[in-house]
Amino acid sequence: MRYFPHIIFLLLFLLGFSSCKNKFEQQLDFVEKIAYTNGDESWKILTEIDTTKLTEKQKMRLFLHATYIKGIYASSINLLDEDIKEGDSIFSGKLNSDEIKWNIVKSFDAKQKGDPVGWLENLKDAEFLAIQLDRKAELGFIYLYLSKVYQQGFNGTVGRYYAEKARKIFEELNLPDPLRDARMSVIGSIIVQRDYKTALDSMEAMIPDVMDNATESYKSYFLDQLARTYDENDMTDKAISIWQSIYDDKPISSNTLAHWANAYLHINKLDSALILINEAIELPHNNTDEYLCRNVQYQILEKGGQKDKLPQIDSLRQLAATGIGEERKLEESSLSLNVKYDSATRDAWIKANNAKAHTLIAIFVSIISCMALVIIWLIYRKRNKLLKLEHENDILKIHNLEQNLFLSDNHNKIVTSKITSLFQSRFNVLDDLAVTYFECKDTGNESKRIYNEVKEVLNNFNSDKSILELTEILNGYHNNLMMKFKSDFPKLSKSQYRLAVFLFCGFSLPSISLFMDTELKNIYVYKSRLKSLISKSDSPNKEEYLSFLNKTGLS
Q1: Residues with Cβ < 8 Å from 85, sequence gap 6 or more?
Q2: Other C-beta atoms lying within 10 Å of the C-beta of residue 243
Q3: What are the CB-based long-range contacts (under 8 Å, 24+) for 427-436?
Q4: For residues 224, 225, 227 and 231, what is the CA-based torsion angle, rounded to 10 degrees?
Q5: In percent, how much of the chain has pLDDT > 90?
Q6: What's CA 433's distance to the chain center, in Å?
Q7: 511-555 pLDDT per residue, tens
Q8: Burial of 407 (0-12, 13-18, 19+ CB in 10 A)
């Protein structure tokens, strides 16, 4: 007894630990449920979880879900080498939704670190697993990100293929915000294909949805893209009007200023174009924006007749083009990227890079071969794991089938025993009646004793015990007939239920009138009402019930 308090304390501790664990799992399940419809609420729940009571594995799962939600809502993430190592040890090879999310998170990280091969490989791994596990929401985001990979590679055909697949999934799942992103990705692929008219039609169709439902930041992004599309469709005044409305005294990127300056160039307002492009050049920007700015600046100066400055500007944009080639390592993988130039600049670029062409082709072929081998190896490894899992499931199904057969055999034996017992009891009734008749034959009380014996038998037939026996027989012999009947018609009275039992057993209406101690005409009425009730119901079993009623004698 002296250890009793210690045992109680240990049990309470284990119970508390178990409840904390279950609460954490419930919170993660809820986050998964609302993640794609309410990102802010999901993030709030994750940040409010008390990590002091979590195991290291649970902390890593919390980190995974938080990073995943942060990534899909277009925020930057930062994975350390130790995070990736620990995450691989916990999530890789588990064949579950956590492994899918982990591959997507690693693709975010690879993209951010400028590793295009890792970006693509992690997305393809995630796609394979999401298809096997039928995780449609995750698969939709994977297709959305794959479309962006190929758009960055200027492969609009493949980019549109994946964007359309993402759009169909989000439409099916009724996820409005991701659906809006997928539709914009489709438009982005169309623009890569330079079909600006189709892109404009698609964007104009999206205007009501974006203006009514999107956030303010998304509206600004959408209107900026719409303005660029108007400009490409020779509606430059409309494009400039949009830019003026959304960027009035608000921060603006170098890229947008360059497009805005290009629009002024299209309508021959060179002074306004030059002011904007000079402002764009002064803002922080990457090599892609540098090339865009210098290209627009070159065209403005060329159109303005300032030819003495053109060689310097051309040198700067060639330098930016070289930087683009170094930054976009996708060009060295399987995506065959091409920088977008106008005809004059493209000719100059081809001449400058002609010497590198053969080397780049050899690099392309080598990297494509390596990537194909890696992807085949990964698919083969994961396929073997899935086959092993299927084999184990088949063994479990066989075991369950054997167990069900054993239980079914026992059930049949029990039903057979009950039927035998019921038949034997009915033979006993007949034997008792015969003995009574023999004993009182040719005596004065012959009719009275036989009448009393028969009446007692009939009364016993209407007893709760007899009804229960008949119910069990019907359930065993007719595939749980009365169990289904009671489930389909739970509001029936006790007398209606008894009538149904007698009718399903096939007793004639006169017999039933004796069992229930009522006149025959009442039984006709009760049966008619029961039949009408069943016919008007939406029970899937009503035809079976009616077939029993139609077989009843003297119906």
Answers
A1: none
A2: 22
A3: 429/457, 433/457
A4: 140
A5: 11
A6: 70
A7: 888 778 888 888 888 888 888 888 888 888 888 888 888 875 544
A8: exposed
Give the residue from 205, 199, 248, 186 showing the smallest Cα distance to 228.
199
Amino acid identity, position 517: D
CA atoms within 13 A on the CB side of 59: 9
Q: For residue 64, give the amino acid letter.
A: L
pTM: 0.54
| Residue 201: CB atoms within 10 Å | 14
H or E element that contains 231: helix 216-232
Is residue 423 a contact partner of residue 485, using CB atoms and an 8 Å limit?
A: no
Burial, 82: exposed, middle or buried (Cβ in 10 Å; 0-12, 13-18, 19+)? exposed
Backbone angles phi, psi at 115, to 5 degrees: -110, 85
Q: Rounded to the nearest 5°, which phi and psi values hold at 2?
A: -70, -20
CB distance 140 to 182 below 8 Å: yes
**Residue at token pair 């005044």:** 237
Task: Using alpha carbons, select from 270, 278, 328 the residue that is nearest to residue 299.
Answer: 270
Provide the angle, in degrees to the nearest 10, between the axes of the packed helices 176-192 and 196-213. Answer: 160
- DSSP H or E run through 194: none
User: Please, which residues have CB within 8 angstroms of residue 53's CB and are 6 or more apart in sequence?
Assistant: 20
pLDDT in tens, 376-403: 988 888 888 888 888 888 788 887 777 7
C-alpha to C-alpha distance for 101 and 514, rounded to whole angstroms: 71
Q: How far is CA 401 from the centre of its chain?
A: 31
> What token pair was written down for 452?
């009393």
Distance CA 468, CA 349 (A): 93
Q: Could you list the beta-strand ranges (E) of 187-337.
A: none
**Cβ neighbours, 10 Å, residue 496:** 15
Q: Return the biggest CA–CA distance within the chain.
A: 144
Helix (H) or strand (E) segment spanning residue 480 = none
Q: What are the angstrom distances between the C-alpha of 278 and each of 50, 253, 541? A: 51, 13, 80
The single-letter code of the amino acid at 291 is Y
Angle, vertex CA 141, rays to CA 95 and CA 92, nearest 5? 25
Whole-number average pLDDT of the chain: 79
Torsions phi, psi for 314 (to 5 deg)? -65, -35
